[in-house]
Write a structure and sequence with these properties.
The chain is of the alpha/beta class. 36% of the residues lie in helices and 17% in strands. It contains 9 helices and 8 strands. An 8-stranded mixed beta sheet has the order 3-2-4-1-5-6-7-8, sandwiched between helices. Strand 2 (71-76) and strand 3 form a beta hairpin. Helix 2 crosses helix 9 and helix 3 packs across helix 4.
């Protein structure tokens, strides 16, 4: 009786240990069947007053899904000097770069673009990448698009392949610079009024790479046609700027409890769509 009891306990412990070993050995493994095996880095840019912490949820979701094992930090100081924290191994698959702006309340889009370029050039100098993807949230989108406004035609820089814009305020922010009674042509994204920043971005219609970049535009609707800070119409004006130039252009509206401006980068539905768009086969 005692021997039988001992045997049952021993087998139970063996099964538990075997399960733990399998879990640990399989955790963090790449899903080569579901996701592309690319060495192209994806650079994440946070929004106004935020930090790289806002990118952590999406980065962890990508790791958990088996997209990548590699995520490093690009820390940008107020002078635009970039320090890379962590290393991207030579054969890293789908590496992620989380950007952190020390000057995170700078609403000068030209400066934000210079910070973005500093990250790109530092990565290029260190790892010699020739292609890249970019993901922005809120003001991070302006950093990306003003970077493209200045640098899209520079073939010496890494070439953008995929761009994801989350909660973008391309034609203004509620209670700040949103044009009064803003409406758009739902087919083209053309607005009936434009901020000064949007008028400058109109040059993207000529400078954005033709048939090169796949673009995904994500925005939230809390039930009033906005994510609480940015109206859906303001977000959707991106199409008028680059939709005709992009290799492909998609939009997706999110609703529900996690559709708020600062909740979208914590939204599992956003994670899923973003992951499949950037790395899905």
């Amino acid at each position: 009786m005692k021997k039988r009891k001992f045997l049952i306990i021993f087998l139970s412990l063996f099964i538990i240990c075997l399960g733990l070993f399998y879990y640990r050995s399989s955790a963090g493994q790449l899903n080569k069947v579901k996701y592309i095996q690319s060495r192209t880095p994806t650079i994440f840019f946070h929004g106004y007053g935020s930090s790289a912490n806002a990118e952590t949820h999406m980065t962890n979701a990508a790791k958990k899904a088996g997209v990548t094992k590699t995520a490093i930090l690009a820390d940008v100081d107020q002078n635009g000097h970039v320090t890379l924290v962590g290393k991207i191994p030579k054969n890293a698959i789908n590496p992620i770069v989380k950007v952190n702006f020390a000057d995170n309340r700078n609403a000068d889009y030209d400066t934000d673009a210079k910070y973005a370029k500093a990250v790109v050039t530092e990565l290029q100098k260190t790892y010699h990448f020739k292609k890249m993807n970019m993901v922005g949230h809120s003001m991070g989108n302006m950093a990306i698009n003003f970077y493209m406004l200045t640098n899209a035609e520079d073939k010496t820089l890494p070439q953008l392949q995929k761009q994801v814009d989350i909660a973008g305020h391309f034609d203004g922010i509620k209670n700040y610079d949103l044009p009064q009674d803003l409406t758009i042509n739902t087919k083209t994204g053309q607005p009936n009024a434009m901020t000064a920043a949007y008028e400058r971005l109109l040059k993207l219609q000529e400078r954005y790479p033709k048939d090169q970049v796949d673009v995904l535009n994500l925005y939230g609707d809390k039930g009033d046609g906005s994510d609480g800070i940015v109206t859906n119409d303001s977000s959707r004006t991106l199409k008028y700027l680059i939709g005709e130039r992009a290799k492909s252009y998609q939009e997706h509206r999110f609703t529900g409890k996690l559709a708020g401006h600062s909740k979208l980068h914590e939204n599992p539905q956003v994670d899923k769509l973003l992951i499949n768009f950037l790395w899905g086969k």
